[in-house]
Amino acid sequence: MDKALEKFGNDIAIAFSGAEDVALIEYAKLTGRPFRVFSLDTGRLNPETYRFFDEVEKHYGIRIEYMFPDAVEVQALVRSKGLFSFYEDGHQECCRVRKVRPLRRALKGLRAWITGQRKDQSPGTRSEVPVVQVDPVFEGLDGGDGSLLKWNPVANVDGKDIWNFLRAMNVPINSLHAQGFVSIGCEPCTRPVLPGQHEREGRWWWEDAKAKECGLHKGNLKEDGAAQVNGNGATTESDIFSSQSLVTLSRTGIENLAKLESRKESWIVVLYAPWCPFCQAMEASYVELAEKLAGSGVKVAKFRADGEQKEYSKNELQLGSFPTILFFPKHSAKPIKYASEKRDVDSLMAFVNALR
User: Fold this and answer.
1) Which of 37, 54, 247, 267 has the fewest CB atoms within 10 Å, i.e. the most exposed one?
2) Residue at 293 is within a domain
3) Is 186 a catalytic residue?
């Protein structure tokens, strides 16, 4: 903890979830260095968790930097699928709106973040968590792959030792722990565990135990790049890049676009796969790009290029890896490939402005 705060100063922050992550704050306080703490308020936390947040702020004399989901996205999800759709089709879509996208916004302002991941928390997904790693999913302040470091200072610490530490230091503790809750998340998706059950069995208990990550630490899932495939060769992961400002291109649509030698408007198109963590990482910036370019004479589009479309995309659309971004100029037949790994909105806008 001391090394992380010394190295990154104000460009690193502790991710606080309202459970035993208070140990991270206590460790940070003991270093004597200034530190930042942020948390994701999904709008669906237990009342006990909100009271716990307040106790922690008062105990340490800090202000937690809360990140909230986009109200329009939450509204669209609830109106279209109801309040509890995750019980029927999995928690990933709800977590993406309420947790992953707010986290992405928080991390874009940092060069590193500190988590409370431990190897013994989830043998199926966290058994190989290192103490320090390049974040495999999210981008940091400078943008691009490798722009964010992830510090997991208690990766090798046993959960019992964490609790001994918390009791010894007499720090605030979420009152839900006394009711049998161990791993604590949103109220509808968290329940107490029984004696002998593993702590993560209280999270998303209706799903496969090997997939119990909400997306914040999705890089832990070894099968990320080999998502489930349906009969026609496409993955079953829920779609990304959802915005009214974005055009969804079919195979016929992108073939027609590629054939045109003179277009009425320029186009920028992302070739993506919804299971790809790097596509997910650039989702917010690409949607923002689409909104900024609305009505500007540049169309922003997406084409799903995995499954049965992958071979065509490799042969005809310069697909090398996901995501691949192409610019189709107004008066030129040949698309121009975006070569940089910086996928923040400013870099993408500079690319468009240089070519349109």
Assistant:
1) 54
2) yes
3) no
